[in-house]
Every structure is written in C-alpha cells, then in structure tokens.
C-alpha cells in the first residue's frame, strides 16, 4: 500500500485547484467590483498640493492651467473627462498617466509624482480629500472605482 506523502499529495492538490478554477470560470462569475470609489476620500490635501506643483511644472503647458486641454491634449477636468473615465478605476487612469505622460519624456516622473498629480486631478474635479494618501501601486488603485457622480446614500 503506497504512503500518502507530500510527493503523492502535490498532484492531488494541483488537480483540485484546477477543478475549482475551471468551475469558477464556467459559472460566469467575474471578479468582484471595487468596493471604494473616488467619493471615499482616497487622497490627502497635502498630496494634492504636491501634485499641483508637479502639474504646473510638467503638465500645464499642454493641458492648461484650468485642465481643459487643447491643441491635441485631452481635458483633465469637466464633463468630457469625467464621462471618459466613469466606470473605470483610478488604477486605469494612473496607468494612462504612467504610460503616456509627459509626452516626449515618458517615464520622467516617479510613481509617487504620478500619484500626486492624480491626487491633484481628483481634487480639481471636486472629489473629496481623505486622511490617507493615494497609493502609487496600481494594484491598490485598481480597487478604487472612478464614478463621475456621487452615488446616492443607501
């Protein structure tokens, strides 16, 4: 009779994990939606102030002092901006900034500077500040929904 040591149990455990994942995929269940939103105070006022300084230095020449865009630069405030990002995550917006800005000098800013600029964009668009800074890790930012309008209280 064989002994059920670690070598014998490993394939069994892997098989169970594969069956579980296959069953989950077949059920049509999706990953749960992020539980936080931009309305939950996801950045601090101090971070937004740092972001404003960086924005003025690195972004305003294309996107304008009032974040309205122009000359091919997308607006970063107002209805068009809000509707373009509505339903996505703050992580999606962060990745767009990281991968495409500033034009002509991609990757010039650190992740922390990008997070600070993003905090400024949220502040400028009247999303409330909170007590903790916006993270610079995209996996945490993907957990924050971008909602153009404040959800109704339940």
Summarize the structure.
By secondary structure, this protein is mostly helical.
Structural notes for this entry:
The protein has 154 residues and is mostly helical. The protein has a domain at 45-145: Cytochrome c-like domain (Cytochrome Bc1 Complex, Chain D, domain 2). Helices cover 49% and strands 3% of the residues. It contains 7 helices and 2 strands; from the N terminus they run αβααααααβ. It has helices spanning 6-26, 45-58, 60-63, 78-85, 90-100, 111-124, 138-141; strands spanning 36-37, 144-145. It has a two-stranded parallel sheet. It is globular, with a radius of gyration of 21 Å. The N and C termini lie far apart (61 Å). Mean pLDDT is 85; it is low at 6-27.
As for the CATH topology of one domain, it is Cytochrome Bc1 Complex, Chain D, domain 2
What profile does the largest beta sheet have? 2 strands, parallel
Strand content: under 5%
Spell out the CATH superfamily of one domain. Cytochrome c-like domain
> Structural class of the helix and strand makeup?
mainly alpha
- Total beta-strand segments: 2
If helices are DSSP runs of H or I spanning 4 or more residues, what is the number of helices? 7
Following the backbone from N to C, one meets helices and strands in this order, namely HEHHHHHHE
């Amino acid at each position: 009779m064989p002994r059920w040591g670690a070598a014998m149990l490993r394939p069994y455990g892997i098989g169970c994990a594969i069956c579980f994942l296959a069953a989950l995929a077949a059920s049509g269940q999706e990953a749960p939606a992020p539980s936080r939103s931009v309305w939950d105070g996801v950045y601090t006022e101090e971070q937004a102030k740092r972001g404003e300084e960086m924005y003025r230095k690195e972004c305003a020449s294309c996107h304008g002092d009032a974040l309205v865009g122009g000359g091919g630069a997308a607006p970063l405030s107002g209805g068009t901006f809000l509707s373009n990002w509505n339903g996505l995550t703050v992580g999606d917006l962060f990745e767009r900034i990281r991968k495409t800005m500033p034009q002509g000098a991609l990757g010039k800013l650190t992740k922390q500077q990008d997070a600070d600029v993003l905090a400024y964009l949220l502040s400028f668009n009247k999303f409330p500040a909170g007590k903790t800074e916006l993270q610079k890790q995209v996996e945490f930012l993907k957990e924050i929904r971008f909602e153009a309008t404040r959800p109704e209280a339940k």
